[in-house]
Amino acid sequence: MNVNETLELRKALLQEKEETEPLTYEEYMLLGDLQYLTYEIYAARISYIKALGLNKTSEVYYALGIINQEMNEPAVAESFYLAAIRDFPNYGIVYCDLAMLYLAMNREQEAEKLLDDAFVLNPDNLVPFIEKVNEER
To answer: What gap in Å lies between CA 1 and CA 6, rounded to an integer?
Structure first.
């Protein structure tokens, strides 16, 4: 069995289970991840929203930010990233993705502040990311 078949099988098992009983937060997150990996972006967003209804974690806010950014809904993505920062201020990766969103929206000053904040939170992990941002400018 190849990787795609494994992803599809795991996804089908979770979807089948959901037909008979509610999934847990972890299962909705996994289902959303599997749907995202198999390019079912709208279905992934629904699964992540269901997970959010069960548990408001940094991971689910972040996943919803990513999904909505990919769906070209920057205002919605921004709201999820900001919720993650508000509720989980030490979750540094969110600062980086919100900064990238702001750069795409020509909001450079806000992006630079977020990158500065992210660097303070975790300087070792952000140096390559900041170099990449500077290359894309």
So the answer is: 7
